[in-house]
Amino acid sequence: MSDYVSSFRDKEKVYYLNAGGRERVECNKVRKKSVQVGHYLMRNQLYIHLGQPNDWKNEVKLGFEGIGFIIADSFYQKDNVFYAVEIDHTQKMLKNRSKIDKYKAIIKHANFPIKIIWLTTTDYRKKQLEKLCDGVDAQVLLIDDIN
């Protein structure tokens, strides 16, 4: 298999097609080890935990002219509610605060319900995010709770 697949360890073993594997299955998309892999794995775990929503989209731009925009890690709709997904893997809490402030402005001007789902790594970060999300329809989950 090593002729076609490479791997590395990031809490668990992560496999990806190397050049030989891409050629064998006629795949043009190159995937290699990235500092973002933990973020992507968390997002994928949440996608599975939420039942693999059919209209799940990654890296979705949300917002309004004059108010501002934000890139949600993922976005989907269920039962007439829009869900913005944010993954807090190694993000600075100051950046998360800024994102939440933007979400508050966007939600205030939206004419449809938006709920934010956060996935984070520690109980301490979960409590910080819950406090920052006060006044917003949000749910904060721990990665250990969905594994």
Keywords, separated by commas or semicolons:
147 residues; globular; two-stranded antiparallel sheet; 5 helices; Restriction Endonuclease; alpha/beta; 2 domains
The arrangement of helices and strands along the chain is EEHHEEEHEHEH
- Per CATH, what is the topology of the largest domain? Restriction Endonuclease
CATH architecture of the largest domain: 3-Layer(aba) Sandwich
Number of strands: 7
The proportion of residues in beta strands is: 25-35%
Distance separating the two termini:
28 Å
Taking the sheet with the most strands, its summary is:
5 strands, mixed
Helical content band: 25-40%
Class from helix and strand fractions:
alpha/beta
Total DSSP helices: 5
Oligomer: single chain
Mean pLDDT: 93
Radius of gyration: 17 Å
- Give the C-level CATH assignment of the largest domain: Alpha Beta
Order of strands across the main sheet: 3-4-5-6-7
Number of domains: 2
Shape: globular
**Low-confidence regions:** none
Outline the structure in words.
The chain is of the alpha/beta class and 147 residues long. It has 2 domains: 1-33, no CATH class; 37-146, Restriction Endonuclease (3-Layer(aba) Sandwich). Helices cover 34% and strands 33% of the residues. The protein contains 5 helices and 7 strands. It has helices at residues 19-24, 37-49, 93-109, 123-132, 143-146, and strands at 5-9, 13-17, 57-64, 68-78, 81-87, 114-120, 138-142. The strands form 2 sheets. A 5-stranded mixed beta sheet has the order 3-4-5-6-7, sandwiched between helices. Helix 3 runs parallel beside helix 4 (123-132).
